[in-house]
Write a structure and sequence with these properties.
By secondary structure, the chain is mainly α. It has 75 helices and 2 strands.
Length: about 1400
């Protein structure tokens, strides 16, 4: 999809490994890991069994689980609490003796610890920031009045800094300490059977199959044991009956470890044996054993065929019954859900997920307080993307819509992504209702009674995500922008919380970056009081000038193009009138100011992005001015006030932003910016004597030696103004102690400047220090004073402390890592950078041997932080030691140092430095030469960084020609170097250079035959990243002070270069394109197949042709290709009428590309599309239709109802043939069973629910014979599959049936009825086989072989079948006769069962 890609995100982060001891010691890690997949085998309650050190105990069946789990989390950790009889010591052993099941246990624990530490670090940094702001505010008050409060704030700031330091150290330790191996080295026997030791303290004699795995057996020689033999031994051990649950869990763990160690082993499984073992485990009475069975069978999944074999074991029934259990069985429910999710990881595995299972998952997702709710919602969303008919027929769509509207899921944007995926294509769109599924997000904004802050924030994120995608934008623009109009109209509601959230959404969608003075303005301060706003113009220009350095001015910004469309839609929906209404609100001044600022930003954005036909009318604000001119009304005063505020904000925005129109050059405005700053500086320099002395007095430096009492703003004005005059500086040096005291303040070993905390409020001291260095370098008097002062000598001594060869050491070096991070000791490096910008400053640094020390530091590579500081702050415009240090770091440093040094070259290779006089490419030759050399770096990351920098530098034609002259070889880089080679095509020199290498013809054929289609996925991924909202982490990082100068780091370009775009930059390339006739082929493909949507590969082909046509048409030389065909008309038709929304978006961006050329703009204007132009008449490419209705023309579609959705038989568990409830009830002959079915149907009626449930429970108490019938159970399951029931209703219905019924279904032992006592004895036998209560039976079984175990299991199955046949009752009799005959058959069946049970206990006797 082009543009914002509506994908269902699935996070798959790789955990950082760490030691368990650290995770256990971290106090933040109080919650259990929810990604852990471990089963803890239980200890018996009597404590007689000697287990390994990693085993734990399981309590009885009724014990409860109480994991400390947060809402919306999903855990695969299986554990159980001890019974009350085990005591406190046993409960302690439960959590201290955890046995590992998955290899990523430690990694997940470490990742959770890191997440907690990072969250704590963010909180501490916010506290620190607040303390700094408070301290800055207190500094403006009188010292006596705020002394006590300042002391408290400083104490809190100090504590916060210490906590931040400790947290960073913990994070560092967690990331770098190597974790212990997750699976310790041990014998294979111990690995498979860790709890089965030779010494028997167990109280239960081990069978031969288990004893083989003990110590001292032939299993000790681990490397010689084959995996197949180990698998057979483990399965034989699982066959043993009468063991404790921990025995089976440990063997299941061993089998899982075997599957993970030998993944191909799962393909050799004999499912007749392995499946039987799994069925027995899944029918166990122990929740932990059942969970282990789910986990074991999940790891045995290999492909779709294995899924079919697993489903043939009747696992659907087992999964359904596990999911509907109560919360105390969360350990089992969780593994059952993970088992279902494993189906989705297999290709086409979703077609093996049954509707009954999905209905059960939907029932769990409806429970707002269920721990598995969030993961169930996420599972439903994933099924919606993979198989929409399955989810629709299972009733899961209503659950997802409810989760969106009510905020049940904490990440609604991912759910919205699933809906957006369906809305993109007409074949998927039919399952949703037009204008409904996404509009539920707006309910929180239009209903002020139900609004709450959490829900508003969640839904605002989902709305922003939807409006950043083409399916969401088109769907929400239906019905004359109904949804967007409702959002904007909510600004009229009297709820401030809703208003503020809507304003934030608009700020976010329009990508408005508020200026630095916005927070002060919103707080209520006047526009004239926040400092020198006029000087912000040049500062902003320096920051963004590089964006428009491109000489050709042809770099298209698709994000701004989409923003222009959004702005036009908001304006059409009535944004400005709604904002004007908010400005009239006098109850909330903050919202009023925020709306005023948004009006100013909107008008500014409209003038830059929208065509004149759009922006000219809205700039006038006719409604506001008409209200202001009605002098006879009271609204006149309010409207006049709003006009004044908007005017003030607009003026301030203009003064605080660069006056650079898109498409113009930075250099054209550099002179104007310098002229804007010049009068102010001149006025400061030319002060008279009285004014100069008054400034000296106002600075308070002469009156006090305490730097805390100095006025640093006045000091900065003095240093940056009058003292730049040599006479004034000489006067300050000789006639006063002004310079002496300031220099003394900056001396490192005075511990004044060097011990200040590194925070935002203290950065003024660094600025003053840099200005002082610059001022002293401008006059001979200043140079002499600086050379004689102790400042540089002491800085050199601090560097010598870090030089291993100097011989100077210190217990606490001034430039230690902690001090550089926490104090202003890092401020000395910007001062050294100022000195390196002047030849005399370089001489001073060389005088004190600083460069020698720096060479040693770079050579030893022991202090990468110090090396990065030096490289970041040096000025490299002059030839000398700084360039040599940089070159040395580029070649001899570590990979991180080389990457950092390469990024330092970015600002010297991509264009002239702001504030410097440029003489052309000569100033950047040295940087380009170093970068070309870096292309041969052995690390791919370094080469990729170099390619990006050189690609940006090639925007300048002279730089591009010089790069070509260097003749770099890029064959070894492959795809990484392709963008740079494409840049070479844009000039004739580069064209001939590449033509001589036979690159052009080969690359052109490659693009025509396949690369043009693959470019679609590349550009869509790039656009998806560009449209992604800014993360909170980036915002938090922007608020923190960095010790490195990263201000010049530029983001990656929005879109990768296109071959045909670069080819048509030159006349030679156009001739080659005309000769190959590729453009005609692209135009024919668009004309013939542009409107089709059935074939996904054909859609990709059309998208590739569209991008090729757009890139060719964006060049002036390529415009003749557009005129020779009518391809533009077909592109417009695709943009306005195509059924696939992503293809519409591609066509929209392509039309923007075409409008960049003069001929293309003329063609677009004839077709009803218009674009804004620069002052020079160049098109900016932000082309939008004059009539938005034609573009936003998505017609409502016919909804596919649930009744018409067809599912294959593989997705229907019980209802192989769709039947109605009435037909199902009529098919039942027995009156009691028929009544049970009627009651189950009535449970879906909320009016009859209480009465129906009471009658159903009454039948259960009377032990109705139907609850022991397999046929009736199947029919009830059909009803539960076809209809919607709540989770508690499903649980109540299933619990009415005898548990032996499920056993018969799983083992496919069909029968009409199971006697009550037979079922009870079956349950008792099952329980005794799992809990190990029958020692005599266990002793007999211990001497059997694996084949005898199989025969005994077969005998047991025959026994159950015989029991059912002899326990049948005649269902045709009336109820009383049924009860009498049933009691007789129960007794006779019990007697016959006793005889057959002997054959099961000892099958050898039957032979």
């Amino acid at each position: 999809m082009v543009g914002p890609s509506p994908l269902l995100s699935s996070s798959a982060g790789s955990a950082t490994p760490t030691q368990k001891s650290f995770s256990a010691a971290t106090t933040m890690n109080s919650r259990a890991s929810f990604e852990r997949d471990n089963l803890q085998p239980p200890n018996p309650a009597n404590g007689t069994r000697n287990l390994s050190s990693s085993a734990v105990s399981f309590g009885p069946r009724g014990s409860s689980l109480n994991p400390s789990i947060g809402p919306g989390s999903f855990s695969s950790e299986l554990r159980s609490q001890m019974s009350s009889r085990a005591g406190a010591s046993s409960r302690a052993d439960l959590y201290t003796n955890l046995e590992k099941l998955d290899e990523d246990d430690d990694a997940v624990m470490a990742e959770e610890s890191l997440n907690h530490l990072r969250e704590a670090l963010k909180r501490e940094e916010k506290i620190k920031e607040g303390s700094e702001n408070m301290l800055e505010a207190l500094n403006n008050k009188k010292a006596k009045q705020s002394k006590e409060q300042r002391n408290r704030v400083e104490a809190e700031l100090s504590q916060s800094n210490q906590r931040i330091k400790d947290l960073r150290q913990k994070i560092y330790d967690t990331q770098h300490v190597k974790a212990a191996p997750t699976t310790p080295t041990r014998a294979l026997a111990d690995g498979f059977f860790p709890n089965n030791t030779a010494g028997s303290n167990t109280g239960v004699r081990s069978p031969p199959g288990a004893s083989r795995s003990g110590a001292g057996s032939d299993f000790d020689d681990a490397p010689e044991v084959s995996p197949s033999y180990a698998l057979a031994e483990t399965l034989q051990a699982l066959e043993v009956e009468g063991m404790t649950p921990e025995y089976y869990v440990s063997r299941a763990n061993s089998l899982v470890e075997l599957f993970k160690k030998h993944p191909t082993l799962k393909y050799d499984l004999v499912w007749s044996i392995f499946g039987l073992r799994m069925q027995v485990m899944l029918l166990s009475e122990s929740r932990e054993v059942v969970a282990a069975g789910y986990r074991m069978i999940r790891y045995a999944i290999s492909d779709v065929s294995s899924l079919k074999k697993i489903r043939s074991l009747n696992t659907d029934y087992l999964v359904i019954l596990s999911l509907i259990k109560e919360r105390k069985a969360d350990v089992e429910r969780e593994q059952a859900l993970k088992f279902v999710r494993a189906f989705l990881d297999v290709k086409d595995g979703v077609h093996e997920v049954s509707r009954a299972v999905v209905r059960t998952i939907a029932a769990v997702a409806e429970q707002g307080d269920d721990r598995l709710m969030s993961i169930c919602i996420e599972t439903l969303a994933e099924i919606l993307v993979r198989d929409p008919p399955l989810l629709i027929s299972s009733g899961g769509l209503a659950v997802l819509s409810e989760a969106l509207s009510e905020g049940l899921y904490k990440s609604p944007e991912s759910l919205a992504g699933a809906f957006l995926f369906l809305l993109d294509h007409p074949q998927r769109r039919k399952y949703l209702r037009a204008g409904y599924e996404l509009e539920v997000l707006f309910t929180a904004f239009t209903d002020s009674l139900l609004a709450n802050e959490t829900l508003l924030k969640q839904n605002s994120a989902a709305i922003s995500s939807a409006l950043r995608s083409w399916p969401g934008l088109m769907n929400l623009s239906m019905f004359d922008l109904r949804a967007i109009r409702s959002l904007i109209s909510s600004l009229m509601l009297p709820t401030p919380m809703i208003k503020e959230t809507v304003l934030d959404i608009i700020y976010n969608l329009l990508r408005i970056k508020s200026p630095g003075w916005a927070s002060s303005f919103l707080a209520g301060r006047r526009l004239t009081t926040y400092g020198r706003v006029a000087t912000l113009k040049s500062t902003a220009a320096k920051g963004v000038g590089a964006t428009y350095v491109d000489e050709a001015g042809d770099e298209q910004n698709f994000v701004e193009h989409y923003t222009a469309l959004l702005l036009a839609i908001f304006i059409r929906a009535g944004l400005l009138p709604a904002l004007l209404e908010v400005t009239k609100d006098t109850e909330t001044p903050m919202l009023k100011r925020k709306a005023t600022l948004l009006i100013g930003e909107t008008l500014k954005l409209a003038s830059r992005l929208l065509p004149p036909s759009w922006s000219s009318d809205i700039q006038l604000l006719p409604d506001l001015f008409s209200a202001a001119t009605r002098f006879e009304t009271e609204d006149h005063y309010l409207a006049s006030q709003v006009v004044y505020q908007i005017s003030s904000v607009s003026r301030t925005l203009y003064r605080s932003s660069p006056s650079i129109a898109p498409g113009t050059l930075f250099a054209s405005n550099a002179t104007d910016s310098a002229q804007d700053d010049q009068p102010k500086g001149g006025a400061q320099v030319n002060l008279d004597d009285a004014g100069f002395r008054q400034l000296l007095i106002d600075s308070a430096v002469l009156s006090s030696s305490n730097s805390a009492k100095w006025n640093w703003d006045t000091i900065f004005r003095l240093i940056d103004g009058p003292l730049t005059n040599g006479k004034r500086l000489e006067e300050a040096l000789k006639a006063s102690k002004f310079i002496k005291r300031i220099i003394s303040f900056y001396r490192p070993f005075k511990y004044k400047f060097s011990e200040l905390k590194n925070n935002r409020s203290n950065q003024k001291y660094v600025r003053v220090g840099c200005a002082l260095m610059s001022t002293l370098l401008q006059s001979p008097e200043g140079l002499k004073y600086l050379a004689d002062s102790k400042l540089l000598r002491q800085i050199a001594e601090c560097l010598a402390q870090c030089d291993p060869t100097s011989g100077l050491t210190a217990q606490y070096p001034m430039f230690s890592p902690d001090r550089l991070l926490d104090t202003l000791a890092m401020g000395y490096f910007p001062m050294l950078g100022v000195l390196s910008s002047d030849t005399k400053g370089l001489q001073m640094l060389d005088r004190w041997r600083m460069f020698n020390m720096m060479y040693h530091i770079v050579d030893r590579q022991q202090r990468p932080d110090l090396i990065k500081l030096l490289l970041s702050h040096f000025d490299y415009n002059l030839q000398g030691h700084p360039r040599l240090l940089l070159s040395k770091s580029l070649t001899a440093g570590t990979k991180d140092i080389r990457i950092h040094a390469t990024n330092v070259l970015r600002k010297y290779a991509c264009g002239p430095r702001p504030g410097t006089v440029t003489h052309g490419v000569a100033d950047s030759k040295w940087a380009i030469q170093l970068l070309v050399t870096q292309l041969y770096d052995p690390e791919v990351e370094v080469c990729a960084t170099v390619v990006k920098i050189l690609e940006k530098a090639c925007n300048n034609k002279s730089y591009l020609e010089y790069v070509v002259e260097c003749r770099p070889s890029l064959d070894h880089l492959g795809e990484i170097g392709a963008p740079l080679l494409l840049r070479f095509l844009s000039t004739s020199i580069g064209y001939h250079y590449l033509d001589g290498l036979d690159y052009i013809s080969n690359e052109m054929d490659d693009w025509f035959l396949g690369r043009n289609d693959s470019y679609v996925s590349v550009v869509e991924a790039s656009l998806a990243r560009a449209f992604a909202p800014d993360s909170k982490d980036k915002d938090d990082a922007a608020n923190r002070m960095s010790i490195l100068d990263d201000g010049d780091m530029e983001p990656e370009p929005h879109v990768p270069p296109h071959f045909y775009r670069e080819l048509t930059r030159t006349k030679e390339g156009c001739d080659l394109l005309r000769q190959k006739r590729h453009f005609d082929e692209f135009a024919n493909t668009i004309r013939d197949y542009g409107m089709q949507y059935d074939d996904s590969e054909l859609i990709t082909k059309v998208k590739g042709c569209l991008w090729a046509v757009g890139n060719v048409g964006s060049m002036e030389l390529g415009a003749e290709f557009l005129e020779s065909t009518d391809v533009v008309q077909h592109v417009v038709e695709i943009a306005q009428n195509h059924e696939v929304m992503s293809l519409r978006g591609t066509a929209f961006f392509v039309l923007g590309l075409i409008s960049r050329s003069i001929h293309g703009l003329e063609i677009m204007s004839e077709l009803g599309w218009d674009s804004n132009t620069s002052a020079m008449g160049n098109s900016l490419g932000f082309c939008i239709p004059t009539d938005l209705g034609n573009f936003l023309s998505l017609e409502p579609w016919k909804h596919e109802s649930i009744a018409r959705v067809w599912l294959p038989e593989t997705q229907r568990t019980m209802a192989q043939i769709e039947v109605r409830s009435s037909e199902l009830i009529e098919s039942e002959k027995n009156s009691t069973s028929r009544r049970i079915l009627e009651l189950v149907v009535d449970l879906g009626n909320t009016v009859l629910f209480r009465k129906t449930m009471g009658e159903l429970l009454l039948l259960r108490q009377k032990k109705a014979i139907g609850f022991r019938q397999v046929g009736l159970f199947r029919k009830v399951m059909v009803l539960l599959e076809q209809h919607h029931y709540r989770l508690n209703v499903r649980r109540a219905v299933v619990e009415c049936f005898d548990k032996a019924v499920l056993r018969c279904i799983v083992f496919e032992e069909e029968g009409e009825e199971i006697s009550e006592e037979a079922g009870g004895r079956s349950r008792g036998a099952s329980k005794s086989s799992v809990q190990g209560h029958s020692q005599q039976r266990h002793a007999r079984h211990s001497s059997r072989t694996m084949s005898e175990g199989m025969s005994s299991l077969g005998a047991r199955r025959i026994n159950v079948r015989d029991i059912k046949k002899e326990a049948q009752s005649d269902s045709d009799e009336d109820d009383e006769d049924e009860d009498e005959e049933g009691s007789e058959e129960l007794s006779s069946g019990d007697e016959q069962r006793t005889e057959r049970q002997r054959s099961v206990s000892d099958p050898g006797e039957t032979r």
